[in-house]
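Supplementary Data S3. Sequence and structure tokens for construct A.
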Amino acid sequence: MAMRWRPRQGALRLSPATLLLLLGAAWAPLAAAWGPQGHRTVGAIADRLLEPEARAAVAALLAGDLDKFGAPSGRTTLEAVAVWADEIRGTPADRPRWHYDDIPVCGAAPPREAYCPGGQCNSAQLERLTAVLADVRASPRERNEALKWVVHLLGDLHQPLHAADNGDHGGNDVQVALAGVRTRGRMSLHRAWDTEFVRLALGSRGRQRPPADVAALAAEARGLAADAGQGDPVSWARESNNLARNVAYAFAGFSCGSVPAGIVLLDVPYGQDAQDLVRERLLLAGARLAGLLNATLKARPAAAGDGGAATLRERAKLER
């Protein structure tokens, strides 16, 4: 699997061949989610890469969308609903374990059942929810919420620290400072990847909205996905875990199974690598989200007993 991300001059050096092995090889022993801006950028890119059939299906599924209070949300795009799964935190609909695949970053990766009991992890739920989304016999509300979960969870799974754990809750227990970057005080390694590196990678002052050049990002994302391949939830988790092992956790003082006692200074080369990688993962997530929806939301012939509903779009209209 070829990826375009490359570390900058003077930073962590991975040859193209090594990176190919890291991202495409089978598992081998090796020494919170994107913030609002990251998730909305993924959704905005996917919005621009939807094929007409999928675009119509998305519009139908979001036509009656509700917010976390059960009131009409008025949201009609993937960008707009991309943060719904974070907004429902603390409500009965919240599913915290769905946001992560807590795969160890040291030693051989165990089978998914070991870190995903009962299917309560990101990759397993992405598989299940994609099936719900494709099922025209499911209720409009079930498919609407499946769509919103899929948009969010696919983005999460492309954040390296959402598929990694070193006994530190995906980097949330590691306190860091960014060399040469003015930030709002101390932060966790996880937050740095969720928000600060996103802002820097996209060249944005804000932390809420996608950058203005989304159309150009979408065009670039299409090419990136063509090079890297579409993949599936299991392979996306594998990519992110390998990148966490070899980039996100590649800071001075890292030790397997140990949380640094003090504040870790992430130097300038680390920050440059992180920004490049974050940008690529956001673009790749947007393109892969569009690819998944384009494949999942294709019209299918009505099966026996479906009452003659000929297409997904027609059925969605009838059931609203």
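Construct B, processed identically:
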Amino acid sequence: MTRHDEGGGTVGDIEFRSEMTVELVKHSASDSDVIWAARVSTKGEQSQEDINADPERSAGLINFLMRDRHGTPFEHSVMTFYVHAPIFVFREFMRHRTFSFNEESGRYRQLEPVFYVPGPERHLVQTGKPGAYEFTPGTAEQHRAVADATREAYHQSHAAYLAMLEAGVAREVARIVLPVGLFSSMYATCNARALMNFLSLRVRRPDAAFPSFPQREIEMVAEQMEAAWARLMPLTHAAFERNGRVAP
């Protein structure tokens, strides 16, 4: 009989995870990028003199651009993230067509048996109607039911996947039995303006000008992306927050 662990971790050849991984792998992003891109409208080629300008002295300009929704200067800062998360999270990601994505392929490699099981902090019970609902924690019995059911389903689907591979079935066919709780990995590239649009929808904040109701799992990814971006462009991030977290 297969042993089921109580939290995350590995049982046999299968790993269960409740956390997402986000890494900033490369970037060309800074507050000064916003400044020289914006000033070309009034200074022409002389705006290149501002490439190395002190952004602290131009915080007001950044805030003005954000407040009045002059968005294109924010498109000159680019970031690439590595994301390791369940497939159902990626399906929500790909609604954001201003990103560029490259994801690992189950046609060309055997997929690793890493599966998502919600952690004990994940709220389980939905109350209210779409657009105005809340989630509450759920009982210990409900958490146990989710953990047991997901792990059992993962074991069965992974066993079927391996059986087909061992029978000589092509990877692109064998993968059809795997669930959307399987972890995948991808690179996601975006500019700062696209990222702000993503964050405005995928992070729930009570101080936002427009409420959003993201699924918790994509919010877990978005929170890590926002933290990395805030370190790169602190003045732009501060202006984003100051102006209601509305993408310009």
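Residues 1-7 have pLDDT under 50 and may be disordered. DSSP finds eight helices and nine strands in the chain.
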